[in-house]
Amino acid sequence: MSLGSPWLLLCLTILHIGPFQWLVGNGHRTDLWQNCTTSALGAVQHCYSSSVSEWLQSVQATMILSVIFSVLSLFLFFCQLFTLTKGGRFYITGVFQILAGLCVMSAAAIYTVRHSEWHVNNDYSYGFAYILAWVAFPLALLSGIIYVILRKRE
């Protein structure tokens, strides 16, 4: 596994929790933190905080946990890279990467099931950050499994 792979996954993880679009449509852009009204040209006119629903807070928390687990995985990879003996496996790194993937999956699944309570109109479509969350889930899971299988060479 190359050294660029953990960086790519970390960037994907951070991108899908930032102030980006999880739902788009009907003059609105919605993410995990705020709802914005947009003009016909796409310029943001007014933003207000997202709902204080328990399900949305659980989505926010699990996405933050996924970033924490990804950062820990990256840090532990570099630590294990210099401390593991020849032939050792990156178990700890893999476990944290798998946990990050499971947190992303949990958050995206909760959002998929519950967003209809928040936006009752059917004029909405999923935004790119929502799709990135579902793309990051299998990538994080796969990289975690590869870390567990990976052996250190001299």
TrEMBL record:
Entry annotated with the keyword Glycoprotein: yes
Transmembrane segments: 7-24, 59-78, 90-111, 131-150
One cellular component (GO) term of this entry: plasma membrane
Source organism (scientific name): Rattus norvegicus (Rat)
A GO biological-process term: nervous system development
Gene3D superfamilies: 1.20.140.150
Protein name from the UniProt record: Peripheral myelin protein 22
InterPro entries per record: PMP-22/EMP/MP20-like, PMP22, PMP22/EMP/MP20/Claudin, PMP22_EMP_MP20
Family recorded in the similarity comment: Belongs to the PMP-22/EMP/MP20 family.
UniProt-annotated location(s): Cell membrane; Membrane
Membrane topology field: Multi-pass membrane protein
Key words, A-Z: Cell cycle, Cell membrane, Glycoprotein, Growth arrest, Membrane, Transmembrane, Transmembrane helix, Ubl conjugation
